[in-house]
Amino acid sequence: MKAELVINRPERQPTLHRTFFAIITIVAWTMWVSLWLPVLTLIAWLLGLGDMYKQLGLIHPLHAANNLSMIVTVAVICALSIGSWSQYNRIRFSGKQRRRGNRTLDIAEMAPALATSVETARHLRAKRRSVIHFAQDGQMFVKDGHEES
């Protein structure tokens, strides 16, 4: 049986490794995008963003004040709408338990579900890792002294 690679199951990595690799990935993407900034700037200027900037602020300086007030008004409206939405969700969902934990199985219920003895089920529950053996009749058991902790 082929072992499953950690790269296919990133949840098997420790949190510190995942965080470190996420930071490295963000830094690498930022550097890669920064390499493209001159090209993106050239494209933006070719599309006329420079002319739009001149029309808004440089050619009509009195309009720039009106545009600034419009921008501030839009920013306040956006802040109020997002703030009211977040307060609505906080009032709606605060203090409510949305997820329930699973019912803990008793050892007497767990053993028949695993088709094993109560002692093996107790051992499996107590250990983080175990080596499982199968008898000739298909019965599962754990050898004492050979299990990993």
What's the order of the H and E elements?
A: HHHHHEE
> Poorly predicted ranges (pLDDT <50, ≥5 residues)?
none
Instruction: Please indicate the percent range of residues in DSSP E strands (runs of 2 or more).
Output: under 5%
Question: Any idea what the shape is?
Answer: elongated
Q: In terms of structural class, how would the helical and strand content be classed?
A: mainly alpha
CA radius of gyration? 31 Å
Give the averaged pLDDT, no decimals: 82
Separate helix tally? 5
Helix fraction by DSSP (H/I, runs of at least 4): 55-70%
Q: Report strand order across the widest sheet.
A: 1-2
- Per DSSP E runs of 2 or more residues, the count of β-strands stands at 2
State the major sheet: 2 strands, antiparallel
How far apart are the first and last residues' alpha carbons, in Å?
Answer: 22 Å
Question: What's this model, at a glance?
Answer:
The chain is mainly alpha-helical.
Question: What does the model show?
Answer:
The protein is mainly α and 149 residues long. Helix content is 62%, strand content 4%. The protein contains five helices and two strands, in the order αααααββ. Strands 1-2 form a two-stranded antiparallel sheet. β1 and β2 form a beta hairpin. It is elongated, with a radius of gyration of 31 Å. It starts with 14 loop residues before the first helix and ends in a 7-residue tail after the last strand. The mean pLDDT is 82.
